[in-house]
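retry 2 of 3: previous attempt timed out while embedding zinc ion. Reduced batch size to 1 and resubmitted. Inputs unchanged:
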Amino acid sequence: MSQVGKAELYVKKIRNGTVIDHISAGYALDVLKILNVTGKETNTVGVVINVPSKHIGKKDIVKIEGGELKPEDVDKIALISPKATINIIHEYDVVEKKKVSLPRDITGIIKCGNPVCISNSKEPVSSLFHVQEVEPIRLRCHYCNRTMEKKDILKQF
Ligand code: CTP
Ligand code: ZN
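retry 2 succeeded.
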């Protein structure tokens, strides 16, 4: 069995739920935070960190038995893991596979780190960032030019 095949032995296949695969290595716990998984829930959750991947060197995987992702969760995952794949599992089969997508402009998901930015004022202006770098992510605020890096983004989740 290949290295990649062996990685699958760390956590068994799930029956029904969601597998988030190809998470950037080391970010599985941040994905759990985005999903509000605290460990106090009753469903089974599998987490694999730093396994060899066919596509991206090393990767993390999160498997949530009985779990479903909200669209805003998928958008947040795209910010920290632009190559992540969301697999919907039904009776052990992958019935849907989609890659997360990072738009060139990001609106509303995170706040600008500049407290005096107009997007943080009482004006009805929602946040708007332009993606400058994808991995590691770097965003630039449309209104005040403040740069937001991965660590700044993670603090908000
Ligand atoms: N998986 C799982 N439980 C299942 C089916 C799949 O946990 N019942 C997991 C697999 O272990 C893998 C991911 O879901 O991590 C995607 O499964 P699959 O599409 O079969 O794997 P690959 O072909 O390797 O996926 P990709 O082409 O996206 O790399
Ligand atoms: Zn700003």
